[in-house]
Amino acid sequence: MSEKRRDSKNRILRSGESQRKDGRYAYKYVDTFGKPQFVYAWKLVPTDKTPAGKREDISLREKEKEIQKDLDDGIDPIGKKMTVCQLYAKQNRHRGNVRHNTVKSRERLMKLLESDPLGACPIESVKMSDAKEWALRMRDRGIAYRTISNDKRSLKAAFYTAIQDDCIRKNPFDFQLNTVLEDTTVPKVPLTPAQEESLLAFVESDSVYEKYYDEIVILLGTGLRISELCGLTDADLDFEGRTITVDHQLLRSKETGYYIEKPKTESGVRQIPMSEKVCEALKRVLANRKGAKDIIVDGYCGFLFLNRDGNPKTAPNYDTMFRLLVKKYNKCHEEALPKVMTPHTLRHPNVKPKTQIFSSFL
Question: Domain 17-74 is in which class?
Answer without folding.
Answer: alpha beta
